[in-house]
Specification:
The structure is a single chain. The chain is 45% helix and 12% strand. The protein has 9 helices and 9 strands. Strands 1-2-3-4-5-6-7-8-9 form a 9-stranded parallel beta sheet.
Length: 272
Amino acid sequence: FDLVIAEPLATRQLHALLETLDSYPHYNTLKFWRAGLGDEGAVILGEWLRPNCHLKHLELLDNRIGVRGCASLSSALHHNECLTHLIMDYNDMGDEGASVLSVGVSWNPTLQVLSLKYCGIGAEGAETIATEVIGKSQSIVDLDLQGNPLSPKGVASIGKALKETKLQKLSLADTSFGQSVNAIRALADGIQANATLTDLNLHLNTLEPQGAEFLLNILKEQKTLSSLKLYEFQQKIPNELFKELLAAVAANKTTKGKKKGKKGKKGKKKKK
């Protein structure tokens, strides 16, 4: 079953809840939404999570988790071999917290989805995420960094890391980089060398015409990318260029659909 906690939870209540779950293993999802856990609660969760073999999905939305809490969760990920989804949106962990957490993610063999929306992560944190999560993780396929001020430097690091990764979905929506041609070039180069990325979200980033051209050329060459979300109110990109981008994505999606639809023909058995 799924358990959702959407109200402030005292430390003693958290301890009691986790002790109860230890004796009742029929759960796979825990969601703490604005439960006021803080670093102290995250440390308790981290210690509990280490040996846990039942929890698949953990959400810690807007719980004021900082560096110390991220360090505890990172340590837990070194040992846990069951968790597949970790959602930590709206926690002000910053660069240091994201960097510490990324190291644990890189070692974990089962985590597939990591969401760090609006966590105050800048260029330094983005560089560590690029190295540890995108570059080293053997299990992460879906990474969401929406709403972080990654800056052109941080996005460029992520672009370079895309050349060797198993990532399938990446969200860089609202990350303050679109007007940097160099960042778009690095991202486009990473996509071109990538064989697994199918879904890229660049929503709420304003692109320069040259950057849009880079993306268009890559889309025409790299048919794996079949979903690209762009900010629809692009003030600098000509309408025709924007339409070409959308058409290239649609063409890739059609190509992908045709490949899925093809079935191998069975050969006729030879008569004896």
